[in-house]
Amino acid sequence: MLLYHYFDKKTGPFRNLSDLSEEEARKVLLSIKSEKPETMCAKRQDSYIADRRRFEEILRNEFLKKGGIIERKAPHYLVVGECPWLQSWFEDCDHIVIDTDDLDLRTVSFTYGDSHPTFSDRVNDGKEYRKKIYTYDEIIGVIGRYGLPQDWNPDGKYGPERYVEAHVWSDRGIYC
């Protein structure tokens, strides 16, 4: 399985807001909003940092319950397969492709769709993959049933899922 990590060329790959203090992360987000107002990242709500940390805590706890191995406080974020829509998130977008064969799959979790709407109380449509985290073997089955969201929902008109999100809880196998 190929995982894609999208990023702005000016900042580089695997620059995670969650690796920063809350104050530093807030400053970076404000900088993006003022310097790159047309990008998707600039349109994030004021509560984004707090929301992100809350969702990451859920991801961490749920993955641990499944026997996952956590080596980082916050995961590296990637998506399963190519997702052209993610290019709109960055002013000068690039991507890195990592094969899951190069990762310890015990350190990788998945959500069917972005983790924020997956665990948000605002999304209550009864779909089986809401409020769930998956291991590699489990997500293969979910993708087998539903396909990749970027194929059937590229413009988001059928719901918030636009890709399968991968969370790599280790620096091993991550390269820039």
Description:
30% of the residues lie in helices and 16% in strands. With 176 residues, it is an alpha+beta fold. It has one domain. It has a five-stranded antiparallel β-sheet with strand order 3-1-2-5-4, with helices on one face. The longest helix is centred in the N-terminal third of the chain and has 18 residues, at 48-65. It is globular.
Largest sheet: 5 strands, antiparallel
Placed side by side, the strands forming the largest sheet appear as 3-1-2-5-4
Helix content, binned percent: 25-40%
- Annotation field: number of helices: 5
Strand content: 15-25%
Specify Rg, calculated over alpha carbons: 15 Å
Report the structural category.
Answer: alpha+beta
End-to-end gap? 19 Å
Order of helices and strands: EHHEEEHHHE
Q: Which whole number gives the mean pLDDT?
A: 88
* Tally of DSSP β-strands: 5
| Overall 3D shape | globular
Low-pLDDT windows of residues: none
Number of domains: 1
Question: What's the helix and strand layout?
Answer:
Elements: E1 2-8, H1 22-35, H2 48-65, E2 76-80, E3 93-99, E4 108-112, H3 115-119, H4 136-146, H5 149-152, E5 164-168
Antiparallel strand pairs: 1-2, 1-3, 2-5, 4-5
Short key terms for the protein model shown above:
176 residues; alpha+beta; five-stranded antiparallel β-sheet; 5 helices; 5 strands; 30% helix
